[in-house]
User: Which sequence fits this backbone?
C-alpha cells in the first residue's frame, strides 16, 4: 500500500540531546538510540515476551463482573440516558463489544506485554475507523475516535482491532475459514506496514496518509463490480455529510431564526431543558465555555471561528460506549442564515486504560483526547480543541472536561453488516495499515517491527487470542441480556 502525503502537524520535533515539556509542565530528556540499538531493543523484547505468548487469554477465577464495570461507568453519566446505552449494547455481541472498552482493558491488563509503548487509541475496533475530510478537502481514511487514548502497550490496540474483526465476521455469518483469514489479513497488514514505516525517514512517516480515492483505485481489481459500486456510493455519500446537510436535517425556522429540532431523548434543545432565567443563564454559561474552547485553537482557526455567532444549543446522544456522557451540539451561523457550522462538544472522562496504566499527563481530559488525536491521525479536524467546566459551574457540582470538533465534515463509516468476506478482509487491511501508521508516529517503530519479525508467528498468536476473547465477549453479552431480564438494569431499545 502506497502512502500519500499531507501537511505535517504543527509543533517542534525534539533533536538529539534535547528535552521536551510534557502536558503537566514537567520536562524530561528524550533518548535517541541508533537504528541498531532500536532493533536490538525489539529483539530483546521478543526474547523476553515471545510472540506466541500474545495468544494467551486466561481470565482469573475472580475476573471482575462485566456488568459491575458497566454500572460503575454509569455512575458519572446522565441517568436517563444510561438505559439507551444498554439498549444499544443489547443489539448484538458486536454492539456489546463496541461499548465494552473498559471490560476489555481490564482483561488486557493481565496479558503479556512486550514493554514497547505507543500512543494507544484505547478503543481501536473496526467501527472507530472511517473516512472524513482533511483541511485540504481530500477524503482520507483514519482512526476517528480517541476518547480512550493514552500511552500504552501497542498490542492492546492490535488485539482490540483483531477481535472486532472476528466478532463482526461472525455476526455476518461468514464461514470460519473466512473469519480467520480476515483476522490474519488485518494483523499482517499491521505487521508489514510497521516494517515499512521502520525503514522510512521520520518526516515521511509523519506525512503518510491514506487518500480514499487512491485506495479505491488501488483495490479496484480486487473487488467485484457490485462491491466496488457500493464502496464508491459510500464515498459519495460521505461527501454530502457536512454542516449544510446537518443544517437541513437538524434545524427548522422559528420566528425567522434557525433552531435545532427536538428528537427526544436523542436530541434535546436547550429551550426544552430550561426556561426563563435558568435558560438564559445556561445559554450564557455554555456560550462563555465555547469562548474558552476557542482559545485552545490555532490562531488562524480561532480567527475563522470568530466569524460565526452562536445561535442554538442542544444535548445529543452519540455512539454506543459514549452514551450517557454529556455531549452538546452548537449551531453557529456565518455570513448569513445559509452559512452554518455545527460544533460538537463532547465530555471527556478519564481513559479506561488509566486504571491499568499510568494516569494521563494532562490534567484536562479534553486536552488528552485532542493531543492524542493529533498525534495519531494523519490529518485532524481544524476545530479540534478542548475546554474545562469548574466545579461551581458543572452539573451536579462536579468539574467536567470536554473536547470540541465539527459535528460532521464529510464523515463516513463502513456498513459492516453489508460486507462480504472479501470486502471485510480489504477493510481490515486498511485498518491494520492505519493503526500501524498511528503507532509509528509515537512509538519506536523500529523496535516494534523487530519484535514482530517477518514471519506470521505474531499473526497466528493474535488469531488464537481473538478466538478466545470473542468467546469471552459472547459470555459477557449474555450476562448483559440476563441482567436486563432479571431487572438488575434497565435497557431502552430501538434508540
Assistant:
Amino acid at each position: 500500500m502506497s502512502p500519500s502525503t499531507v501537511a505535517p502537524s504543527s509543533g517542534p520535533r525534539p533533536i538529539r540531546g534535547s528535552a521536551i515539556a510534557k502536558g503537566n509542565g514537567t520536562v524530561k530528556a528524550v533518548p535517541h538510540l541508533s537504528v541498531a540499538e532500536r532493533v536490538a531493543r525489539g529483539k530483546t523484547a521478543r526474547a523476553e515476551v515471545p510472540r506466541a505468548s500474545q495468544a494467551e487469554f486466561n481470565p482469573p477465577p475472580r475476573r471482575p463482573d462485566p456488568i459491575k464495570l458497566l454500572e460503575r461507568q454509569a455512575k458519572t453519566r446522565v441517568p436517563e440516558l444510561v438505559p439507551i446505552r444498554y439498549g444499544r449494547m443489547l443489539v448484538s455481541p458486536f454492539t456489546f463489544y463496541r461499548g465494552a472498552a473498559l471490560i476489555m482493558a481490564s482483561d488486557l491488563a493481565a496479558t503479556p506485554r512486550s514493554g514497547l509503548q505507543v500512543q494507544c487509541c484505547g478503543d481501536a475496533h473496526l467501527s472507530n475507523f472511517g473516512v472524513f475530510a482533511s483541511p485540504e478537502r481530500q477524503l482520507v481514511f483514519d482512526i476517528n475516535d480517541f476518547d480512550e487514548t493514552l500511552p500504552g502497550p501497542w498490542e492492546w490496540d492490535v488485539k482490540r482491532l483483531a477481535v472486532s474483526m472476528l466478532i463482526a465476521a461472525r455476526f455476518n455469518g461468514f464461514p470460519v475459514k473466512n473469519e480467520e483469514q480476515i483476522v490474519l489479513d488485518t494483523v499482517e497488514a499491521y505487521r508489514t506496514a510497521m516494517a515499512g514505516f521502520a525503514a522510512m525517514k521520520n518526516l515521511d512517516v509523519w506525512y503518510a496518509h491514506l487518500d480514499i480515492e487512491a485506495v479505491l483505485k488501488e483495490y479496484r481489481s480486487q473487488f467485484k463490480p457490485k462491491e466496488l459500486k457500493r464502496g464508491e456510493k459510500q464515498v459519495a455519500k460521505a461527501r454530502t455529510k457536512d454542516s449544510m446537510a446537518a443544517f437541513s436535517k437538524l434545524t427548522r425556522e422559528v420566528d425567522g431564526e434557525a433552531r435545532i429540532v427536538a428528537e427526544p431523548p436523542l436530541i434535546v434543545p436547550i429551550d426544552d431543558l430550561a426556561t426563563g432565567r435558568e435558560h438564559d443563564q445556561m445559554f450564557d454559561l455554555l456560550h462563555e465555555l465555547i469562548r474558552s474552547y476557542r482559545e485552545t485553537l490555532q490562531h488562524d482557526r480561532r480567527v475563522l471561528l470568530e466569524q460565526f455567532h452562536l445561535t442554538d444549543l442542544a444535548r445529543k446522544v452519540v455512539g454506543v460506549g459514549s452514551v450517557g456522557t454529556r455531549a452538546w451540539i452548537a449551531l453557529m451561523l456565518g455570513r448569513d442564515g445559509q452559512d452554518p457550522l455545527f460544533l460538537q462538544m463532547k465530555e471527556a472522562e478519564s481513559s479506561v486504560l488509566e486504571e491499568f496504566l499510568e494516569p494521563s499527563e494532562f490534567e484536562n481530559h479534553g486536552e488528552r483526547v485532542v493531543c492524542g488525536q493529533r498525534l495519531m491521525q494523519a490529518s485532524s479536524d481544524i476545530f479540534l480543541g478542548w475546554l474545562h467546566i469548574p466545579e461551581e459551574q458543572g452539573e451536579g457540582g462536579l468539574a467536567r472536561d470536554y473536547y470540541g470538533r465539527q459535528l460532521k465534515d464529510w464523515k463516513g463509516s463502513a456498513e459492516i453488516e453489508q460486507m462480504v468476506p472479501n470486502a471485510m478482509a480489504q477493510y481490515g487491511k486498511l485498518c491494520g495499515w492505519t493503526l500501524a501508521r498511528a503507532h509509528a508516529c509515537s512509538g519506536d517503530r523500529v523496535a516494534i517491527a523487530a519484535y514482530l519479525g517477518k514471519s506470521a508467528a505474531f499473526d497466528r498468536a493474535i488469531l488464537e487470542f481473538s478466538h478466545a476473547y470473542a468467546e469471552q465477549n459472547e459470555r459477557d453479552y449474555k450476562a448483559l441480556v440476563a441482567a436486563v431480564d432479571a431487572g438488575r438494569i434497565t435497557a431502552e431499545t430501538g434508540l
Observations:
- The radius of gyration is 22 Å.
- The chain has two domains: 29-238+415-485, 243-406.
